[in-house]
Design goal:
Elements: H1 2-16, E1 44-46, E2 51-53, H2 57-62, H3 66-70, E3 76-79, E4 84-87, E5 93-97, E6 100-101, H4 104-108, E7 115-121, H5 126-129, E8 134-140, E9 145-156, E10 160-172, E11 175-201, E12 204-231, E13 235-260, E14 263-290, E15 294-317, E16 323-347, E17 351-370, E18 373-394, E19 397-411, E20 416-433, E21 436-447, H6 451-454, E22 458-462, E23 465-468, E24 476-488, E25 492-504, E26 507-513, E27 520-526, E28 529-541, E29 550-563, E30 569-585, E31 588-594, E32 599-602, E33 605-608, E34 613-621, E35 624-631, E36 637-643, E37 649-657, E38 663-675
Parallel strand pairs: 5-8, 23-27
Antiparallel strand pairs: 1-2, 2-7, 3-4, 5-6, 7-8, 9-10, 9-38, 10-11, 11-12, 11-37, 12-13, 13-14, 14-15, 15-16, 16-17, 17-18, 18-19, 19-20, 20-21, 21-24, 22-23, 24-25, 25-28, 26-27, 28-29, 29-30, 30-31, 31-34, 32-33, 33-36, 34-35, 35-38, 36-37
């Protein structure tokens, strides 16, 4: 693995000094953000913490909406299942329109002709750094009056797969009104699961080989209503009411062969589970100009809702009907979440100073019935974040230096965790040539455990095997470094990043002996440390210098290790990958996506990523777009998990969804706009905690 990384670094170094210098156009627009460090090409400008993309007339005319433009960026990819844009480097992505937090439908509501440029922050500014990994900001033109609306549906013909949406925006003077609706529905009746548990217990050897067929699905709906009032150079106000409606179910039956030493018996089982919630969310934002150099912004987000989760599983001996286990779990979680943020920005001649304070609090009251009986308990998650950063430029060198103070306070019935952490961050950029740059970023930040990891819940997985949370978990502390080289011309858009991440008190999932119920429990611990390092190569190649043929590739040779609390070293190497071939000609477009799944570390297991082998064709005629395609050509979607050699339980599972094998889909969309809505330069964007499930 190290030899591979060293070889790639050498090739990248050779590539840096072998490029031909190109003539580039200049953007004369002034900016108060970090100034550009590198290139001024027709399409891309590289800054210390972001890349700025512009689009030619042909690309703008061909795209249906702004989302189509985002798909062409080498750092972004389209998730074909959810039909959303994600970053190739993984993690969480936040979308903005002129600095305002935006949904997928809002991005779609922007006509391509209104897009001025797109800012891709692979190093998010301080106000977002603790919440997301990537920020995408779409900058648009704006007029005083206009409206835009559209609708689409994308559906399989012979199975339960539907993506649908509709949106409308209207602007009159200083006021803007927006309405959105989206639907994602899945209903599959042929999911096949093979799972094997193999372990030693009390001097005996046990093995459970289970084959199950499930009927499962989910429905996710989102409704959003927005009102915005903008008084230029004075203030901006936005109120947004958002409703997330979600339900899922799984109903499975199967058989297993259960072996104890040399004796085996046939078992039968069923496993049913489901959950649902309705989240009403109110988001209020206010920004006020104070003189020419100062701006003060306030953002408050709140939600209150109930999540219902249930799981029923039974296994019995076929010959006698005797019960092996009977699992009946019901969890009702009432959750109240509030996020508040206050931020101030001041512009100096030499740069910009940004400072702020954010507090987020989630309180969850749980009514729980499970294997250990009935219980009521409450948990509270509180996080405070103070931050300040200064950005500027000196000749060819640009920088951003920030410092933060983070407090994590988690309180449960069993434990209270309270810790303050200093969270510094530095971003440095230097221009090498006209179209080449090198950038460095270093940061340190705490990461709080997820609610399911801290949960006191217990569920049965298999005979003698249960799963538990751990209320005594502490936060992880991550130290991250990245060194990135970027190159761009008419034919290539290339990034090579060396990355190294060290995590102290890494949260690790593992099997332990269960003293309360007997057998083994899958639970969580704070390991000693974790490391992840490698090279991420991303880029696109246009053989003809246009979109007639575009080859996009992502290669990520990675090495990862975890040192458990007992000192055992877990190591894994893999080559992450993703490839896209696309072609656009007049009103037609074609895209083919594929990857080679690889195993990566996930707690006590090695998991594969979802396989892809998809092709899509679309035809645009004025405001209408017709689409068709096929998911997972010649194969079902499949997912594999296996335990590590160090695990007390040897576990393997192979899941295949046969319904979406060679799944043929058809889609139609209509998008219309006249004029444009008023946009505000919103500086704060927050989100309450997700639903608490187990």
């Amino acid at each position: 693995m190290k030899k591979m990384i060293y070889t790639i670094c050498f090739l990248c170094g050779t590539f840096i000094f072998a490029q031909e210098k190109k003539n580039d156009s200049t953007d004369t627009l002034a900016t108060k953000e970090i100034q550009e460090v590198i290139l001024k090409s027709q399409r891309k400008k590289q800054f210390a913490d972001k890349a700025v993309y512009t689009f030619d007339k042909e690309a703008l005319e061909r795209a249906r909406y702004a989302k189509d433009l985002l798909r062409t960026l080498p750092e972004l990819q389209l998730d074909p299942v959810s039909n959303t844009i994600t970053s190739t480097k993984g993690g969480t992505t936040l979308f903005l329109i002129n600095g305002v937090e935006a949904t997928d439908l809002q991005v779609r509501s922007v006509a391509p002709s209104e897009v001025v440029k797109v800012e891709y922050y692979d190093i998010p500014p301080a106000r977002w750094a603790t919440r997301v990994d990537t920020v995408i900001n779409i900058l648009t033109k704006s007029t005083e009056t206009g409206y835009v609306f559209g609708a689409d549906v994308f559906s399989a013909l012979d199975t339960g797969f539907v993506n649908g949406s509709a949106y409308a925006n209207y602007t009159k003077g200083k006021n803007n009104f927006g309405l959105e609706y989206s639907l994602n529905l899945r209903d599959y009746n042929d999911r096949r699961v093979n799972s094997i548990y193999d372990y030693q217990l009390n001097g005996n050897h046990y093995r459970s080989d289970e084959n199950r067929k499930d009927h499962f699905g989910y429905t996710f709906q989102n409704i959003a209503l927005r009102y915005t009032r903008l008084v230029p150079d004075d203030y901006a106000f936005q109120a947004k009411l958002n409703m997330d409606i979600f339900s899922r179910f799984s109903k499975g039956v199967g058989q297993s062969v259960f072996t104890e030493d040399n004796l085996s018996e046939s078992h039968a089982m069923f496993k049913n589970n489901g959950s649902d919630y309705v989240i009403p969310k109110l988001d209020l934002y206010y920004s006020k100009k104070i003189g020419e150099k100062d701006e003060l912004s306030i953002n408050v987000v709140g939600s209150h809702y109930t999540t219902n989760t249930s799981e029923t599983a039974k296994e019995w001996i076929v010959s006698s009907g005797l019960s092996v286990y009977d699992n009946d779990m019901m969890l009702k979680a009432k959750q109240t979440s509030v996020v508040g943020e206050l931020a101030h920005v001041h512009d100096f001649k030499s740069g910009r100073l940004s400072s702020g304070y954010r507090i987020s609090r989630s309180s969850i009251s749980n009514d729980l019935n499970n294997l250990t009986g009935y219980s009521q308990y409450s948990v509270t998650y509180l996080e405070q974040y103070f931050y300040t950063e200064f950005s500027g430029k000196i000749n060819q060198f640009s920088y951003r230096v920030g410092a933060g103070l983070t407090n994590i306070h988690n309180k449960s019935a069993e434990n209270i965790f309270d810790e303050w952490s200093f969270t510094p961050k530095v971003v440095l950029g230097y221009q090498l040539k006209n179209n080449q740059s090198i950038r460095f970023t270093g940061s340190y930040s705490p990461i709080s455990p997820l609610s399911n990891a801290l949960s006191s819940n217990v569920v049965q997985l298999a005979p003698n095997i249960v799963q538990r949370g751990n209320p005594f978990l502490k936060s992880q502390q991550m130290f991250s470094n990245n060194l990135t080289y970027s190159f761009n011309n008419k034919y290539f858009d290339f990034n090579a990043a060396l990355f190294y991440r060290y995590t102290d008190r890494v949260i690790n999932q593992y099997y332990v002996q269960d003293n309360e119920l007997g057998g083994y429990a899958l639970t969580y611990e704070n390991g000693k440390s974790g490391q992840r390092y490698g090279v991420q190569l991303t880029g696109s190649y246009k053989p003809f210098g246009n979109s007639l043929l575009v080859i996009k590739a992502v290669l990520v040779p990675t090495s990862e290790t975890v040192r458990t609390s007992k000192g055992a070293l877990i190591k894994n190497d893999y080559l992450g990958n993703y490839f896209v071939l696309s072609s656009e000609y007049k009103a037609f477009s074609l895209q083919y996506q594929f990857n080679i799944p690889t195993y990566s570390l996930n707690g006590a297991f090695l998991n594969t990523n979802e396989n892809q082998n998809n092709i899509f064709v679309s035809y645009k005629n004025k405001n209408w777009t017709l689409s068709t395609g096929m998911y997972w050509m010649g194969m079902p979607s499949e997912y594999k998990t296996k335990s590590l050699p160090e695990s007390l339980v040897d576990y393997k599972v192979h899941t295949q969804i046969m319904n979406n094998k060679s799944m043929f889909v058809l889609g139609i969309s209509y998008d219309f706009s006249k004029g444009k809505k008023t946009e505000i330069q919103r500086k704060l964007n927050n989100e309450t905690a997700p639903a608490a499930t187990f």
